[in-house]
Design brief:
single chain, 316 residues, alpha/beta, Stationary-phase Survival Protein Sure Homolog, Chain: A, 2 domains, ten-stranded mixed beta sheet, three-stranded antiparallel beta sheet, 6 helices, globular
Length: 316
């Protein structure tokens, strides 16, 4: 019998993938990503949302910014209008802004155009799944965190959505992104109203046709980086660094670690590998889950540290 604890993945049974009641009112949506404003995934999202009558404002990085997490830009930013309610943002002619920044700009421009904040920020569709430990390094997820955290604007509900591309011809890949975009639109219309403040969703859609998908699992983030369906640790190594002289240079590389990561069947990585769409609730608060317990144990020890040091005998 399956556990009913809060950490257990919950299978959401929806009778037919892609068939949901439409939202009662059109949604105001800010769109961004980390693959660039003109990438296939975000274009599919924009087309699907607009076809359903929703209002979209798209601001994406000028260039690919994957792996940016929640990084910021603090210098000059150039925003270019590419078409109606579609913009690119850059820090130079060759380099786009961080995804978190393009997401915040999408919220700002949407708010100005519509005289009201967007109901949602949607980040994606990312080229490549963001599962397990890859989640916190993802620019796609970082943009969602920037919106829902409330650190820059009032919190805006946010969804990050990612998929692996199927190994097929360009027309097949375009069709796949359209399937993922339809699912993203179905999710927002099914929810109908934004989530509670500070909460977002990280959604990953397998590289499968809708008929081949086993279902939807509302689950938790796994550990390790999913590579070939197996969670692994990644390490940086520099074997020659210990023998360097001052000014010497050696090459360092990132590689899979031989240390295994314990399998967790109730995680996004496992469910995704089994052919399920995964949905993980996310938030921007990094406070440990067992804060009160830790406060009683670690907090008491650390609070006893003497703040004022004992004066040194050498001090006048």
């Amino acid at each position: 019998m399956k556990s009913k604890t809060a950490t257990t993945a919950v299978v959401l049974i929806w009778s037919t993938l892609g068939v949901f009641a439409h939202a009662r009112e059109p949604l105001r949506l800010a769109l961004t990503n980390d693959d660039g404003w003109n990438s296939a995934g975000i274009k599919a999202l924009n087309a699907e949302f607009k076809a359903r009558g929703h209002t979209t404002t798209l601001v994406g990085p000028l260039t690919q910014q994957s792996g940016s997490s929640a990084a910021l830009n603090t210098g000059e930013i150039r925003v270019t209008r590419q078409s109606d309610r579609v913009f690119s943002a850059a820090i130079s002619a060759q380099d786009g802004v961080e995804p978190l920044v393009s997401g915040l700009l999408a919220i700002d421009i949407a708010t100005s155009l519509d005289q009201a904040a967007p109901h949602w920020l949607v980040s994606g569709i990312n080229q490549g799944a963001n599962l397990g430990s890859a989640t916190q390094h993802s620019g796609t997820v970082g943009a969602a965190i920037g919106a829902l955290s409330g650190s820059f604007t009032d919190p805006v509900s946010a969804v990050a959505i990612s998929t692996d591309e199927p190994k097929c011809d360009p027309a097949c890949i375009e069709s796949h992104y359209a399937d993922v975009a339809r699912f993203a639109a179905d999710v927002l219309e099914r929810l109908d109203t934004p989530l509670q403040s500070g909460i977002g969703l990280n959604i990953n859609y397998p590289a499968l046709a809708p008929a081949a998908i086993k279902g939807i699992r509302f689950t938790q983030q796994g550990r390790g980086f999913p590579i070939n369906g197996r969670p692994v640790k990644l390490v940086y190594r520099c074997p020659a660094c210990t023998s360097l002289q001052d000014g010497g240079v050696a090459e360092a590389t990132m590689q899979p670690s031989p240390t295994s990561v314990p399998a967790n069947k109730d995680s996004d990585s496992s469910a995704f590998a089994d052919g399920y769409i995964t949905i993980v609730p996310i938030e921007g608060d990094y406070t440990a889950r067992d804060f009160r317990k830790l406060k009683r144990s670690i907090g008491r020890k650390l609070s006893a540290i003497e703040i004022n040091p004992v004066p040194s005998p050498l001090q006048p």
